[in-house]
Amino acid sequence: MTSLAIPSAPSAPSAPAAPALPSSPTRERLRWPDVAKGASILLVVLHHLVVKDYLFLVAPAFTPIADAWHGLSYGLKPVRMPLFFVVSGFFAAGAVARPWRASWRRIVSSYYLYLVWLTVFIGIYAVERDLPANRVTSVADLLGELVWAASSMWFLYALAVYFVIAKVFRPLPPVAVVAAAAVLAASVSWLGIEENNRFSVLLHLVYFLVGAYFPQFWRSLAVRRVSVPALLALTVAYSAAAAFVFAGPLPWSLGAVGASVLGIPLGILLAARWADSRVGEVLAWVGQRTLRVYVLHLVVLVALVQLPIGLGEGGLVSLVATATYPIVMSGVIVAGCFGLHHVLVRLGAGWLFELPRALDRRLAAAASPPVGTGDSAPADRMGRAASEKVPSQSRAGTAE
Predict the structure, then answer these.
(1) Average pLDDT of the chain?
(2) What is the residue extent of each domain of the chain?
(3) Which ranges of 62-214 does DSSP label H, i.e. alpha helix?
């Protein structure tokens, strides 16, 4: 920009202008991780709608349609939440490499949200007794939930715990840590806890660690140009693996971990391919706002199951309603989540979705290095600043 020069006195020569400091380039947020997160959270909504509502509405004549939706939902299980946690770990990679002082805000935020929504659902499920769910029914249950989540809010608990584990074990060889977590995931079925979400807490640790310890692998995978036939072949291979998981003789956790080896790369390749499309824009928009969908979709679903909805027992209208109900009502639930979030925030209940501002400011201040210490983000094994490797989140905790 040209500025107006002020003439100096004749006897005073002009000093040379100081060179402008180069401004650091603005790092654009990658879109494919948000696309992957958006697709994952929509599949979570679809799954819960199918198993907690839809299957109880379908007339016997349309059981094959219900079985198809049920099979599709369970067939996506080895990729739905694993993909979500890989992306969550990918986003957390830079923060995992930073000092503990800079991490407490993220940890406290995730666990705070877990406590808030655990409390909310204790209240909801105390009133609503019919929806299939893991409920807290005693003080012993509550104490257990504080140290090892079994409820539907296990995801928020896992984000806090996985991040701590990733930081604690970061000095060790990452391949060894991931291998140990993979063995744990594959063997969870032998613990006999598949009926509650503690199973999921153990199973999904490996995916967060893979995302947090190897972000460059996923970044390089996402930029690969894979042909449509190759994607179709990978889709077929994953479908066959998923079918084997549910029909084969292997314990579920072992088969699911194996299927996810195909499913997660497929999910990332598809997310990268869709990233610049209109569908990708929508999925990315949802993917940046997953927290509100995750915590509110069961609230909306609880309200939905109270309505006298019927799909009918015969005729073309009943057939169409039965076939399309999961898609249509999943859209209704997601829209309800965004509407309810807007209302709650306008009513002053923003503390349901983020740390109270006073606590957030204190944690942010504690995370800042003392002035003049020259503290900076530590370098990774390749000698690059960890903060330069992956996009960071604008707020600590469960970033949306």
Answers:
(1) 86
(2) 32-364
(3) 63-75, 77-96, 104-127, 139-147, 154-168, 174-187, 198-203, 205-213
